[in-house]
């Protein structure tokens, strides 16, 4: 979900520092994958680029969406608040919301 949030524009509840933090975490994760040489597979699809790496013996698969310039209609504040809390709270800590 970090890769998804790092591609979103700053809107309503998703402020610029949160997006910058997501971008930083994505870059750090990609750097880790490169340095550890753990990337095993990748696949191009219409949704984005799928990657699979083996991290500490576990296969991890994730998707990185393509960067298109698009107009994003923000969902309702209630739904977006839950999505932010569920997806980013464990990664960024609870005090950013």
């Amino acid at each position: 979900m970090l890769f998804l949030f790092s591609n979103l524009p700053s809107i309503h509840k998703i402020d610029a520092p949160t997006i910058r933090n997501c971008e930083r975490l994505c870059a750090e994760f990609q750097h880790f994958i490169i340095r550890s040489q753990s990337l095993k597979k990748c696949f191009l699809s219409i949704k984005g680029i799928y990657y699979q790496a083996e991290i500490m013996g576990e296969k991890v698969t994730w998707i990185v969406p393509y960067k298109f310039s698009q107009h994003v209609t923000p969902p309702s504040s209630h739904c977006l608040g839950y999505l932010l809390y569920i997806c980013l709270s464990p990664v960024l800590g609870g005090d950013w919301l």
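Residues 2-96 form one domain. The first strand starts at residue 39 and ends at 44.
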